[in-house]
Amino acid sequence: MAKDKRSKAPGPPQSTTTTTTKPLTTTAPSWPPFKPSLPVADLALEPLVEDKVVVVRSFFPRSLCRDYISFLRDLPLATTPGKPKRGEAVRVNDRLQLDDAGFANRLWAETGLKEVLLSEDVSHLWGGEVVGLNPNIRIYRYRPGQFFDAHYDDSNNVTVPTGTGSQVSARTTWTLLLYLTSSADGCIGGETVFYPHDRRSVKEEIAVSLETGMLLLHKHGRDCMLHEGREVTAGEKWVIRTDLCIKW
């Protein structure tokens, strides 16, 4: 659940529940293949906030982002209500949430992501033994006038399938956002902005501009930083979201 800063004293949320704006879609779509084969460049983590926010640039090539946007346009996205439930941040966007362990595993194992995140020099960041990505996949589209107000991301208990047909109990520790558009594609605004001291301050903000094909990972749960998705003023902001999971 995304918690509104105004609903509690400063500090990250303790809740481990997840809310949705519409019933979870159970039928997995036929995702486009990863063409060209990934990775297309040497992947590397670039820290933006020590131990809390990192990016991986050129995760998806621009051509693949275009293929995915074309595909995602045909999915049944629903617009979130402008008035949130009590204790939740204001979010206005078009979204779809679905369980798809197969696609989550493809993102993890067939893109170079697994190798870069499990390298010895960064493995300490994730909070435990990483078992893969959250099968819960979320698609977000922000059009002009849409935004996500300041909030925290919760940590959740999930079940992650293994390659042997069994499942492992896991917990999410980092949010993973894959940006499919940027200003180069006509999307103006939509920056993800972090506030290190749990208060909105222009002087302290860390604004991450969109880059087509870039991954943004940020720590959530008890150590989540207050953050927001700024209003899109032109074009469309497309995002695929999942979470990094550790054995629990």
Can you describe this structure?
The structure is a single chain. This protein is mainly β. The protein has helices at residues 62-72, 101-109, 113-117; strands at 2-4, 46-49, 53-56, 78-79, 91-92, 94-99, 130-133, 136-142, 147-153, 157-161, 167-179, 188-189, 192-195, 206-208, 215-219, 226-229, 232-234, 237-247.
Tally of strands: 18
Major sheet details? 10 strands, antiparallel
Give the integer mean of the pLDDT values. Answer: 90
What form results from the Cα inertia axes? globular
- Helix/strand class: mainly beta
**Secondary-structure element pattern, one letter each:** EEEHEEEHHEEEEEEEEEEEE
Distance between the termini: 20 Å
Rg over C-alpha atoms, rounded to the nearest angstrom? 17 Å
Proportion of β residues? 35-45%
Helix content: 10-25%
Low-confidence stretches: 4-23
Number of distinct helices: 3
Question: In a nutshell, what does this entry contain?
Answer:
With 248 residues, this protein is mainly β. It has helices at residues 62-72, 101-109, 113-117; strands spanning 2-4, 46-49, 53-56, 78-79, 91-92, 94-99, 130-133, 136-142, 147-153, 157-161, 167-179, 188-189, 192-195, 206-208, 215-219, 226-229, 232-234, 237-247. The chain is globular.
